[in-house]
Amino acid sequence: MPTRYRAQDLKQFASDLFASSGLARERADVMAETFLQADLMGFTTHGLHRVASNLHWLKSGASRMSGEHNVLSDRESCFNWDADFLPGPWVVNQAIDQALARVGEQGVVTGVIRRSQHIACLAAYLPKIVERNCVGILACSTPAERTVSPQGCKTPLFSANPIAFCAPAADYPLLFDISMSVTAGGYVARAEREGKRLPEKYLKDRDGNLSDDPAAFANGGSILPVGAADHGYKGAALSAMLEVLSMGLGGYGRADQVAEDDEANSVFLQIIDPKAFGSEQNFLRQTAALTHLWESCETDDGDSVRVPGKRAWNLREDQMANGVSLYPTIVEDLNQLAEAHAKAFPEPIG
């Protein structure tokens, strides 16, 4: 049986670490909750794994400890914020809360944020949206990052450019969080740390040769877009679309001097209230039918059908009730942080 930890204990531990840097407790709690939500749903490369980097940014001044975002424009149904390097999980949660407060009247609320410190796992923000019976779309890009090469190129241009989506359905929501790169940078870094090869040739080395060796990326190579070597033009096109929605609408990105921005993100978010379009019951009838039909599809190999959201939502419910099972290297890293900051790491359950 894997070692498990109480979800609340992990949240408190992460919050204590952030608060020890001087961050206000309210903000520390929001950040800790965001990282925990990622691990609850199985997104282990961008959950509590990112506590160390966010703590470093706070202490170094790369993340702004206090103050508020700057409102660049606001038309109630759409807004544009400059986060000015506020911690990503804090400012994105603030934006989602504002959108949720307005969506009942507006029907659809769209927001963009520039210069938000790294926002980590997009899926971590979805539960509060879907629990309000709303549809959510969240995407981000990183102006200073060039890690993904367009189809047929060896020069990296795009960042990973993830998009996340949620919609209420029947027993579980439709929910996903996917990058426009064929694999996420976090998985490449994890494979390098563990001395492993990637499952397929997801990378190019700096000379443009396909590779499954994480060192090829570390030594100046790139990650392939969604669609990989054969159909990567699809991923490159989607990457461009997401950069337009985040950097383009935000008015800040590729055309600017962004070298000092490091991992700071440009963010696009949209929240939709199905009731603005008709009966909520009719909406849920359609989404439930979709998930049920999907589950009834005959598979190629006899395994169960994987409908986006089912595994993550069921895992979240299980881990909230029975404890969180952390990826081994995350436990190693959190124990090091506990020792360095004189904080007691939570005791495992049982």
Structure commentary:
This protein has 350 residues and is an alpha+beta fold. The protein has a domain at 184-223: Hypothetical oxidoreductase yiak, domain 3 (Wheat Germ Agglutinin (Isolectin 2), domain 1, 2-Layer Sandwich), CATH 3.30.60.50. The chain contains eleven helices and ten strands. The chain has helices at 7-20, 25-40, 51-60, 88-106, 127-130, 185-193, 214-218, 228-250, 280-295, 310-322, 328-340; strands spanning 70-74, 78-82, 108-116, 135-141, 163-167, 174-178, 203-204, 210-211, 222-223, 265-272. It has a seven-stranded mixed beta sheet with strand order 1-2-3-10-4-5-6, with helices on both faces. Strands 8-7-9 form a three-stranded antiparallel beta sheet. The longest helix has 23 residues, at 228-250. It starts with 6 loop residues before the first helix and ends in a 10-residue tail after the last helix. 44% of the residues are buried. The model has no long low-confidence stretch (mean pLDDT 95).
